[in-house]
Amino acid sequence: MDALTAENISSGYGRSPIVRDVSLSAPSGKITTIVGPNGAGKSTFAKTLAGILRPSTGRILVNGVDITRVPGHLIPRHGLSYVPQNDNVFRTLTVKENLEVGGYPSKGDPRERMLQVFRVFPDLQKAQDKKAGNLSGGQQNLLAMARALMAEPSVIVLDEPTAGLSPAYTDIVWTQIGRIAGEGTAVLVIEQNVERALTHAQFVHVLVAGTNHAHGPVEEIAKLDLAGIFLGQDRTNSSASTTSTISSINH
Ligand SMILES: Nc1ncnc2c1ncn2[C@@H]1O[C@H](COP(=O)(O)OP(=O)(O)OP(=O)(O)O)[C@@H](O)[C@H]1O
């Protein structure tokens, strides 16, 4: 059974849905990414998984349990933690205090859990008494991920965790994402940069105009003409698809 299963989700902000009939699954211990052009509905879908938006159709299962109608603030207790792109740490609290807050949904010993999280994020242990607001943007994103891990989630949803980061810090964040998956968590990453998604993920979903355009193991998705798909001109089977083209349209 996949840790996360979303079936036929439609969702949005008003009467007409932004995301339409999207299905996706994310297995434990693997990285699944959602890629797509700007405005495709990736963040809207992530917010729907997190319970911030209520889907108008479909259902969301975590470890087989239907969480579709669970209020957003209780969803971490059901095994799904969400890290938004912005405002994802308490800036006036220390690193340690942020982690303590993140541990509230967990039933385990929070001190033990913090030591486990520090094993995945050793640099945060060194900075544990620093105010989160004094960390760099990249360190804040790592702290946000670590805070989400404190809840011992089965599934962690990361909305563009490397947005705005330097290439060097982007590599650090992806290394950490790999370590989170290595601990057995299902990781779902919204990623703007297709090249990065194809490099790091095992499964990829391509969302275009709010609908599921393609999905599958990374080896299969890498064969598609993603640049053409993003530009609305699917040229798969032509020779036009190159990784550098895909990369360049994402910057
Ligand atoms: N709070 C909101 N209220 C109304 N419409 C919104 C809101 N947030 C996003 N939208 C609209 O929903 C659509 C999808 O936005 P969304 O942020 O989900 O796309 P995305 O694929 O994550 O894009 P990006 O890669 O640019 O972040 C866009 O047309 C956007 O303008």
TrEMBL record:
<keyword id="KW-0067">ATP-binding</keyword>
<dbReference type="InterPro" id="IPR052156">
    <property type="entry name" value="BCAA_Transport_ATP-bd_LivF"/>
</dbReference>
<comment type="similarity">
    <text>Belongs to the ABC transporter superfamily.</text>
</comment>
<dbReference type="Pfam" id="PF00005">
    <property type="entry name" value="ABC_tran"/>
</dbReference>
<dbReference type="InterPro" id="IPR003593">
    <property type="entry name" value="AAA+_ATPase"/>
</dbReference>
<keyword id="KW-0547">Nucleotide-binding</keyword>
<dbReference type="InterPro" id="IPR027417">
    <property type="entry name" value="P-loop_NTPase"/>
</dbReference>
<dbReference type="GO" id="GO:0016887">
    <property type="term" value="F:ATP hydrolysis activity"/>
</dbReference>
<dbReference type="GO" id="GO:0005524">
    <property type="term" value="F:ATP binding"/>
</dbReference>
<dbReference type="InterPro" id="IPR017871">
    <property type="entry name" value="ABC_transporter-like_CS"/>
</dbReference>
<dbReference type="InterPro" id="IPR003439">
    <property type="entry name" value="ABC_transporter-like_ATP-bd"/>
</dbReference>
<feature type="domain" description="ABC transporter">
    <location>
        <begin position="4"/>
        <end position="234"/>
    </location>
</feature>
<keyword id="KW-0813">Transport</keyword>
<protein>
    <submittedName>
        <fullName>ABC transporter ATP-binding protein</fullName>
    </submittedName>
</protein>
<dbReference type="GO" id="GO:0015807">
    <property type="term" value="P:L-amino acid transport"/>
</dbReference>
<dbReference type="GO" id="GO:0015658">
    <property type="term" value="F:branched-chain amino acid transmembrane transporter activity"/>
</dbReference>
<keyword id="KW-0029">Amino-acid transport</keyword>
